[in-house]
Specification:
145 residues, mainly alpha, Rossmann fold, 5 helices, 3 strands, 10% strand, elongated
Length: 145
């Protein structure tokens, strides 16, 4: 969670920890980037307005540190420009404050399931490549003999 509003951090922390999620909260984009180098995060909620940068700028920075991280903008000031910019920078969700906690949890569950499917698909493709490469190498060695 990246938001300089302490009450928003506390509310999201409560909602998410009650559902069993591990949550880290920071108040600036710079701290969010630093945290993303320390450990792997599956999902980030990002306020559109941060003290040190725009949330859309942070989207780009986080994409570089963890491309598969799910990134969701949370804003109390929705604008067409912000939503277009966020979409162009690879947003995975857009939530307007105040929000319904049930819808938030539903969004998280759907996005995490999609992320897991992608990871499984990628792992399957890597395994298939390794297997094909091994067979090719074995066949090439047989032809040499």
């Amino acid at each position: 969670m990246v938001d300089d509003d302490q009450k928003m951090q506390e509310m999201l922390m409560e909602i998410l920890t009650d559902k069993g999620y591990s949550v880290t909260c920071v108040g600036t984009g710079k701290l969010a980037v630093a945290e993303s180098f320390k450990r792997l995060y599956n999902l980030a909620f990002i306020d559109i307005r941060l003290p040190d940068m725009k949330g859309t700028e942070l989207l780009s920075k986080l994409r570089k540190t963890e491309p598969d991280m799910i990134k969701v903008i949370i804003t109390g000031n929705p604008t067409l420009d912000n939503s277009i910019e966020a979409t162009n920078k690879g947003i995975d969700g857009y939530i307007v404050k105040p929000f319904d906690p049930k819808k938030l949890i539903n969004l998280i569950e759907v996005k995490l399931k999609d992320q897991q499917k992608k990871i499984q698909f990628d792992e399957k493709k890597v395994a298939e490549y390794i297997e094909q490469r091994h067979e090719w190498m074995a066949n090439a060695n047989l032809k040499k003999q």
